[in-house]
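ESCALATION

Customer reports they have been waiting on this structure for their group meeting. Please prioritize. Original submission:
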Amino acid sequence: MKVMEITEFDYELEYMYFSMLKKIGSNPGMYIGDSSIEKIYCFTSGYEYALKNIKNYKLRFDDMFQKFVIKYYNCENDIHWDRLILMHNDSKVAVDVLLKLIDLFVEESDYFSQIWQS
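Update from on-call: job pushed to the front of the queue and completed.
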C-alpha cells in the first residue's frame, strides 16, 4: 500500500487532527483516561497509523511539529516531542505545555494557521 505523496494535502484530515488534539487537551480524561502526555502521544500515534492504513494518508503535523518543538527547546538531538516536553517540564503541566506549543506552532506557521482558522 502506497502512502500519498507529501505534496498532497488533505485539509479536512489535517483540521480534524488538530481539532482532536485540542479536544483531548481540554478534557483528557474523556479521551485517554487522565492527563498524560504519554497517553496523548500513544493515542495520536494510533490515529496516525489508522490514517496511513485506512485512508492511505500521512499527516504532516507530526513531522512539522517535531521540528518546531526541537527548535523551540533549542535541542540538537532528535528526541520526540512528547519526551522533549517532559525533559523540560513536570509531567503535571506537560499537557498544558503541549497545548501552548501547538498554539504557538499554529501561529508561527502560515500554512497551518489557515487550516486552523478555516
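Sent to customer with the following note: The chain is about 70% helix and 0% strand.
Escalation resolved.
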